[in-house]
Structure formats: structure tokens, C-alpha cells
Amino acid sequence: MRSAALLVLVASISVLGVAGCAEEDDYLPPIARRDSGIPAGADAAIDAASAPSGLPCDVALVLSTYCASCHGGTPAGGATVALTTREQLLAISLTRPGMTHLEVAISQMRGATMPPAPAARVPDADIAVLEAWQAAGAPEGSCELPNDPFAGPDTCTSGRRWTGGNHESPLMRPGGTCIQCHTDMREGPRLTIAGTVYASGREVDDCNGLASSGGDPVVVEVTDSTGAVFTLSPNAAGNFFREEPVSMPITALVRYQGRERRMLTPVTSGDCNGCHTLRGTMMAPGRIVVP
Ligand code: HEC
Ligand code: HEC
Ligand code: HEC
């Protein structure tokens, strides 16, 4: 349901090209924070400071998905207020006296001014979560969101590595830049989308990702600029790919057991691992992680 909002995105607002330089954009602080040269330890400290408190899980999840990149415990991206605790949300706004931050937040989400363009408008269902909480008197909750998957050391969670070099296989080179290499070598299928899903954000090249199996498999969902949605299933190496045409730019999300991690920024390349490297390039936080 959330992915519906991605369709609202205008094609021209894509700020990340496949080969172009990543620009310093004010509206990309989630990433700016990660790419700011702040050492990993400091980053972890920031994440701890941003931890939501006093909030029910559904409320915390909406804020962390759409707002925490700027309104985290240490505000970034030009934002001056933190919106991660119940106390902060119920504090009176300095710019709109008489209104709480929560009230301002809801009206700005409804008015599509937060998060600032070019981020997609927050889906109605998610705004409704904050409205329902407010209508109920903003009762205190206690939610612990999962740890930051990008904070840990470099690893290979599956413990299994691809050792076949460039031997053709759908299981080949997990974590590698599939499309780039096939193009450079003029070998292998012409893929339009390809990548690898992992258990954490810091997985080394050629490490097998997460296999998609069982009754509730991991699913990668890509939405292209026409609104078409492609559902891809990672194979035994965590690799997923598609050969049929896709209209750029695209957005994507990973879904598992009712949870999701999604890319808010539209991109013009389907070579997911090209940005989602061990450390992340083009402002990506790191690997594509199962939620
Ligand atoms: C890309 C950065 C960014 C994101 C993401 C973002 N904001 Fe903002 N927000 C700002 C900036 C910049 C301001 C203006 C400076 C300030 O007041 O903090 C602002 C101001 C606000 C204010 C006004 C605070 C006040 O009372 O003066 C509220 C409320 C707010 N944002 C809510 C949200 C909510 C809710 C979300 C998520 C749905 C969100 N913002 C996402 C950057 C962001
Ligand atoms: C370093 C280069 C390189 C990388 C990285 C790479 N490939 Fe390949 N791939 C090749 C080459 C070369 C072939 C053709 C080999 C041959 O014909 O023997 C190939 C063939 C394939 C094939 C055809 C297999 C078959 O059975 O027909 C698939 C599918 C494939 N690659 C998927 C991927 C995926 C998915 C990724 C990324 C996770 C990937 N490749 C990463 C070089 C690469
Ligand atoms: C041009 C670079 C680029 C490409 C290509 C790219 N991404 Fe991203 N991705 C990003 C950036 C930057 C972010 C962080 C900002 C955001 O979430 O929008 C991100 C974030 C994400 C996230 C959320 C990160 C998190 O917090 O866990 C997911 C999931 C994701 N991407 C999946 C994909 C998939 C799947 C593909 C391939 C279809 C892909 N990405 C291709 C740059 C890229």
C-alpha cells in the first residue's frame, strides 16, 4: 500500500544517475549523515540519540521511515527540531505558537510540504497513523526499533561465498555489479534490474546473501516510472534480476514478514549493487538489507 505513493514521483526529479556524480543535495541528509565523514562510532552515537522513546511502534515507524533522516535525535538537513520522542512531539512549536510539533507535522504531511520535495508524499495510511494517535490523546508507548544494520563490522552473515569466478550462473558474484560487468565483458544476459539482498548492510563481495524460501519469502519490489511494479524473488545466493525492459527512474523496496525497507529516492539505474556496495556509493547506506 505504501508503494502507491511512489507513483506520485515525477520522473525528472531523479537526483541520482548511474554514471553521474552524486550531488550534494539538501534534501538527502539521511545519506548525507552517513556520508558526512563522521566516523562509524560517532554515527552509532547519533543513532542512539535518535532512538524513539515514549512512542507506540506504528508512530515510531512512520517517523523513522519518512522523517528521522532530518528530524533525528541530532537534527540534520536544515531541520532544527528532533521528532523522535513523545516529549518532542508534544512540545509547542516555536514557529507556530499554539500548535504542538505533532499538529504541525500532521498538517505539513497532509499539505505535502514534509518531507520536502523531491521526496514522495507520505501515504495517507501512514499520516492516518499519526492522526489516530493524536486523536487518542497521544498515549505513551514503548517501541524498540531494530538495530541499525549499517552500524556493524564488515561480515559475511551466510558464511557461504561464491568461488566460481565469472562462471555463468544465476548464483554468481553476489554483491557484484551485475549489469556493469555484463556490459563491460559483453557476456552474460542483458539485465535491466539486478542485485543482492543481505542480512546486514556490511556484507563483503562474493558473500552469498539471503535465500528466499519458505512460506513467507523475501521479496524485492521495483516500481518503474510508468507505475508498473515488478516483484523479484532472491535466489539461493540472495541474487535477484530481471531481463525485460524497465522504464527509469525506479524506486524499490524489500519486504519480509510484513516489514519493509524502502528506497525513497528514485534512481536511474537498475544495477542495485552498483550503489549498494559494502560501504555504499552514490550516497547509498550500504547493502540492500532484509527488513
Ligand atoms: C530532508 C530533510 C527533512 C525531512 C526528511 C523532513 N523534514 Fe521536516 N523540516 C525540515 C526543515 C529544513 C525544516 C525547517 C527547519 C525547522 O523548523 O526545523 C523542517 C520543519 C519541520 C517542522 C516544523 C517544526 C516547527 O514547529 O517549527 C515539522 C513539524 C516537520 N518538519 C515535520 C516533519 C515530518 C513529520 C517529516 C516526515 C514526514 C519531516 N518533517 C521530514 C527538513 C526535513
Ligand atoms: C565480474 C563480472 C560479472 C559479475 C559481477 C556478474 N556477472 Fe553474471 N556473468 C558474467 C559472465 C562473463 C557471464 C557469461 C559467462 C559464460 O558465458 O560462461 C555471466 C552470466 C550470467 C548469467 C547467465 C547464466 C546462465 O545460466 O545462463 C546470469 C543469470 C548472470 N550472469 C547473473 C548475474 C547476476 C545476478 C550478477 C550479480 C549479482 C552477476 N551475474 C554478476 C560476468 C559477471
Ligand atoms: C544510483 C544509486 C542507487 C541505485 C542504483 C539503487 N539504490 Fe537503493 N538507495 C540508494 C540511496 C542513495 C539510498 C538511501 C536514500 C533512500 O532511501 O532513498 C538507497 C536506499 C535503498 C533502500 C533502503 C535502505 C535502508 O535503509 O535499508 C533499499 C531497500 C534500496 N535502496 C534498494 C534498492 C534496490 C532493490 C535497487 C535496485 C533495483 C537499488 N536500491 C538501486 C541508491 C541507489
Fold blueprint:
Layout: H1 29-35, H2 40-50, H3 57-66, H4 68-71, H5 86-90, H6 101-110, H7 124-135, H8 178-185, E1 193-198, E2 219-223, E3 229-232, E4 239-242, E5 250-256, E6 259-267, H9 272-275, E7 288-289
Parallel strand pairs: 1-7
Antiparallel strand pairs: 1-4, 2-3, 2-5, 5-6
Keywords:
binds heme C; 7 strands; elongated; three-stranded mixed β-sheet; alpha+beta; single chain; 291 residues; 9 helices
Report on this structure:
With 291 residues, the protein is an alpha+beta fold. 24% of the residues lie in helices and 13% in strands. It has 9 helices and 7 strands, in the order H-H-H-H-H-H-H-H-E-E-E-E-E-E-H-E. The protein has helices spanning 29-35, 40-50, 57-66, 68-71, 86-90, 101-110, 124-135, 178-185, 272-275; strands at 193-198, 219-223, 229-232, 239-242, 250-256, 259-267, 288-289. A 4-stranded antiparallel sheet has the order 3-2-5-6, with no helix packed on it. It has a 3-stranded mixed sheet with strand order 4-1-7. The radius of gyration is 19 Å and the shape is elongated. The chain binds heme C (HEC) (3 copies). One heme C (HEC) binds next to helix 4 and helix 6.
Quick overview of this protein structure:
By secondary structure, this protein is an alpha+beta fold. The protein is built from nine helices and seven strands; from the N terminus they run H-H-H-H-H-H-H-H-E-E-E-E-E-E-H-E. The strands form two sheets. A four-stranded antiparallel sheet has the order 3-2-5-6, with no helix packed on it.
